[in-house]
Specification:
mainly beta
Amino acid sequence: ALVAAVAGLAPATAEAAQRFAHPGSKLTSGTCDASAACELGFAVQGASAGDEVVLAPGGYKVTTSLTPTVPIVLRGIEGRQRPHIHGDSKLAAPTVTFTAGGTLRHLSIRATDSLQSALVFEGGVAEDRVFVSAAGDAVKVLGSPAGSVLRDAVVRTGEEAAGLSAITLSDGGGGGDISLRNVTAFGPGAGAVAIRCETTAGR
């Protein structure tokens, strides 16, 4: 049941709301509270700055890139299995584009289309995560004046991703720094690398 999967969690603060998503939900209206969890895309796009979007365990297939426009927390439930977000095979965009700041936590994100990235990330923190791209750069991290931090993560690109990388580090629009901490990266394809650094600014 949707309620049983996410109930028992209350908003962290009076200012920030919690919105709940469930892999079996098709609800695209309302406030996405614990008793009426929403479809993932609706839960994300309806979030305000500082809100948390909490995912129940399970698989979430996305046909449109998840792209928050304000800083939010997008996370699974601590102590439970990581939710799996996987991009549709025809999605010609990153599975998740997280460039407005905020935090990604306790999730698994996979890209399946050719040259599709699992995550494009700029600003904020991405932690306790698994990223896989079948045939593209798995994660692209852009520098940010506020800092872009990827930590406690496993990142892998597929054997078909010849000449690509598990992690690509690039300059963001405003320059800034990138930090990788306790990250394991695999690039098993022919000519592929685990980490490719293309930055010219920051550190």
